[in-house]
Amino acid sequence: MSLTNFRALGRSGLVVSPLCLGTMTFGPGDWGADEAASRGIFNAYRDAGGNFVDTADIYSGGVSEELVGKFIRETKSRDDIVLATKFGFNGSSSPLTGTAGGGGNPHAGGAGAKNIHRALDASLKRLGTDHIDLYWMHIWDGVTPVEEIVQTLGDLVRAGKIRHYAFSDTPAWVAMKAATIASERRIPGPIAMQVEYSLVARGVEAEHFSAAREAGMGVMPWSPLAGGFLTGKYKRDDTADTGRLSGANPFGDSKFTDRNWLVLDALRDVAAELACDPAQAALAWTMARPGVTSTIVGARTAAQLASNIAAASIRLNDDQMNRLNEVSKPADGFTSSLASPVIRKMVYGGHDVTGWGE
Ligand SMILES: NC(=O)c1ccc[n+]([C@@H]2O[C@H](COP(=O)([O-])OP(=O)(O)OC[C@H]3O[C@@H](n4cnc5c(N)ncnc54)[C@H](OP(=O)(O)O)[C@@H]3O)[C@@H](O)[C@H]2O)c1
After folding, report:
1. GO cellular component annotations, sorted alphabetically (predicted)?
2. Cα(3)–Cα(232) distance, integer angstroms
3. Which of 29, 47, 227, 324 is the most exposed place for a label (fewest CB within 10 A)?
4. Would the CB of 243 count as within 6 Å of ligand 1?
């Protein structure tokens, strides 16, 4: 596989690379890349044939969008690139921007119509373009009625300001309800879900993957390397001064659990068999999972990105996939137990009946 193995994102005509370039690292910040490093990352991705770039209004306080817009202009690639950005987090007062003191504008965040229009106009300005190819609701706000979200985003598709929309960090039932309302009311519907998904974060398999398949949405994993944990560069007895997960930061040390170290041990074994880096084996596993359309890779340097892109041509055999699936298997929840072979037999008179799309 290469970055030019294009595929449709969900039930849509938006054709994207199997690896999407995440630009959360673009711009200032402790684990960010300055302009020159960001340009190097962007150009390395484009040189490898990638066509899909993911940013957000909140990344580096808007600098990520500004840099992405600048690099697209420099490379005259606006028509080639699928440009995705996000709205939802509040830039006026938020722990994300280090201004959590309160007193911010409540209409500078969330999925209400008022904020979506404000956020989109600001993103278009920073990106220097007149349309977004894929507009993400970054996070469910828990307040705005799904009807309002679908109506607002559907109208923006019809107005041509965005070509498609999708949901990130949203409960599966909300995304499913949105898709159903859109289809019933003949409004353009969501085409993808963006979720944390990796060998150490498989909780979304139970609800999100099934909902995405049912509603014709592509699944796009973020943090496929668990913020760098699955590169294997952190040592169990010393996690300091290594990368983004070292020290105090929003991602914290939550990845350093006994269970995750066991997953990493198995990943190292598989990577050794394939003569590749653990990061490449982890990405190859994610890309091969059923339902995954395009995996969002992040990098702080062009060298990291080049190594991650090489994962596209790595293929795990069945035994390697099975071993990684087993060691990283998420705990059974209520929904996954309903889909078990035992229940299927109880329902179908002892037969193994295969459902559509399984
Ligand atoms: N929707 C959402 O809520 C959400 C949330 C998070 C991310 N995202 C999107 O997903 C993208 C990817 O997320 P992520 O950055 O968390 O992905 P990730 O691939 O899990 O982590 C990337 C980080 O791992 C380290 N790394 C990457 N490749 C490496 C390599 N080959 N060798 C050593 N270290 C390496 C780098 O950090 P260090 O060098 O500092 O260790 C890099 O910044 C983001 O850019 C963003 O577009 C979306």
Report:
1. cytosol
2. 24
3. 47
4. yes
Q: Tell me, in angstroms, the distance from the centre of ligand 1 to residue 265's CA.
A: 20
| Closest ligand 1 atom to Cα of 251 | 16
- Residue 31 Cα to ligand 1 midpoint, Å, equals 10
Q: How confident is the model at residue 241 (pLDDT cuts 50, 70, 90)?
A: confident
| Ligand 1 in reach of 175 Cβ (< 6 A) | no
Query: Beta 132-137 vs 82-87: how paired, if at all?
Result: parallel
Tens digits of residue pLDDT in 284-321: 999 999 999 999 999 999 999 999 999 999 999 999 99
Give 30: exposed, middle or buried? Use CB within 10 Å, 0-12, 13-18, 19+: exposed
Residue pair 218/191 in contact (Cβ under 8 Å)? The answer is: yes
Would you say 174 and 166 are in contact if contact means Cβ atoms under 8 Å apart? no
How wide is the angle at C-alpha 102 spanned by C-alphas 98 and 108, nearest 5°? 85
Q: Which string of DSSP letters, residue by residue, matches 232-282? A: T-SBTTB-TTSSTTSSSSTTTTTT--HHHHHHHHHHHHHHHHHTS-HHHHH
| Ligand 1 pocket, residue 112 CB under 6 Å | no
Residue 165 designated active-site: no
Cβ of 231 closer than 6 Å to ligand 1, yes or no, is: yes
180-235 pLDDT per residue, tens: 999 999 999 999 999 999 999 999 999 999 999 999 999 999 999 999 999 999 99
What residue segments make up the domains of the chain, in order of their start?
7-332
* Per-residue CA distances from 273 to 64, 210, 228 (Å): 38, 32, 21
Query: How big is the CA angle at 107 (ends 27 and 141), to the nearest 5 degrees?
Result: 80
Question: Ligand 1: distance of its center to the CA of 350 in Å?
Answer: 45
Give residue 54's identity as a one-letter amino acid code.
Answer: D
Distance CA 253, CA 246 (A): 7
| The pairing of beta strand 15-16 with beta strand 162-168 | unpaired
* Distance from the alpha carbon of residue 209 to the mean position of ligand 1, in angstroms: 22
Tell me if 255 CB under 6 Å of ligand 1: no
